[in-house]
Amino acid sequence: MIRLNRRHALGLMGATAGSLLLPGYLRAQGTRPSVTIAVQKITNNNTLDPWNEQSNVGERVLYPNLWEGLILRDWMGDQGPVPGLATEWKRIDEQTLELKLRPGVKFHNGDEMTAEDVAFSFSKERVFGDTEPAGGKTIFAENFKPETAKDIPANVPGIGRRKWPSLAGVEVIDKYTVRFHNATPDVTLEGRLYAGGSQILNRRAWDEAATYSDWAAKPITTGPYMVGEYRPDVSLTLVAFDDYWGGRPPLESITFVEVPEVASRVNGLLSGEYDFACDLPPDQIGTVMNVDGFEVQNSTIWNHRISVFNTENEILADPLVRRAMTHAIDREAIVQALWGGMTNVPAGLQFESFRSSDMFIEGWKVPEYNPTLARDLLKQAGYKGDAIPYRLLNNYYTNQTANGQIMVEMWKQVGLNVEIEMKENWGQIHDPAGIKGVRDWSASNTINDPITPMVVQFGPNGEVQQKKDWSNAELNDLSVVMETSTDRGLRKKAIARMLEIAEREDPAYQLLHQNAVFTGMRSDLGWKAAPAFAMDFRASNWPSNG
């Protein structure tokens, strides 16, 4: 984590001189402050359901302030597992995990959390529908048709099995003890419990909600803050839950405001309208830091930016064309031009944290920048210059539009005719109507094992195959090995081969760079940014008011 302020501003790109007279730090009535945070987007699906909102923007507003799991992710540390709603856990065997629940935990409606709430949180009604606990099979949303307003959305069962391919059920042992039963061995059961989706809800609140939409707009959870008001596409206000098991929250309220334009977020921060401005591009760092009383915190995070290929496109069906596209991109030039060198090009779809379990493939690299090779591959493919569509969002990702424009020019230099098609939302990006080609995405390591992101995002039940972008039979077989084998050597061999397939032989994606988060803020707040999209406003990450 790098903490930047005015004295670091000189020499950074985009720095501007000047200062502003700032209003006093606005505090809520009483002893606790409230904060307002300007974000590019609050949620993608207009719900606060972690199963339905599998996104970077959702991570920011859902964790760790609203939703919690049995095992928590150490957001301010190494991102590994720490006790949460469970105080301890142990393996019964390769397919069974037992957890002891934290007694006395209160939901926002005053109910005590028990094993019954945990079991329901992983039930067919809540997550899995009529799917079976068996991996290696693609589950399409169109196979599920909600029959009542209370039924889960059609996409949720597939997401559930993406994260828990072989979970057979959760057994209630007693009020404070549960056992997770898997249909197959799985070395990642513990990790799956702190991934997005595996958080615990209140069973009674679910039952009492008239519709799924009603419940998903104001879910009853155990977090330090609860939903005060949610206005989709406008704002989300979380208010303190003073019966929180981890102690009294330090803030009266947290309001996330959707401000799509970078300039508006920056201007609002500097004028005192917002206390935080998220999703800043590097060229705005100097603008913020050169004003007294403000700083920018930044960090690379466990997320890589990628572009995904759609092989239903007749041109991209040929792997030679996709390989040419990967060799036409000068990733280091993009990192320097758009990011000022403040991120890096990683060793393929891998994360340094994989080294802790000896699952990092040493010596692996992204495809080299080689325009000559790219032209030769296009010649072998017999490419005639036909247009390849590139569906692009307007800076959903930081620097996304500029990055897309640069890549189009790089592709043009080797003879590829890629045409940008600007879209307004993810629904338009994934719309099966029309001709697909290339799209942007990102890939996250959520459970500190190569199963994420490779299997979770590109395996048989990953979003890429659910959206019919790409599929590979050998990679699907290897995904099952990754999900079920307890042999580390066999799993390491499998992930090495999966990298060869997805990045070299039959490219599913091209990796661009590791993602980085830049957050502008008032220096007097004393808050620290996590190396993640999530923003932690628990007492441990807020200075004492006393």
From TrEMBL:
The keyword Signal applies. GO terms for cellular component: ATP-binding cassette (ABC) transporter complex; outer membrane-bounded periplasmic space. This is Peptide/nickel transport system substrate-binding protein. Keywords: Signal. One of its GO terms (biological process) is peptide transport. Residues 81-428 form the Solute-binding protein family domain. It comes from Actibacterium naphthalenivorans. InterPro entries: Peptide/Ni-bd (IPR030678), SBP_5 (IPR039424), SBP_5_dom (IPR000914), TAT_signal (IPR006311). Belongs to the bacterial solute-binding protein 5 family. The keyword Kinase does not apply. Gene3D superfamilies: Dipeptide-binding Protein, Domain 1, Dipeptide-binding Protein, Domain 3, Periplasmic binding protein-like II.
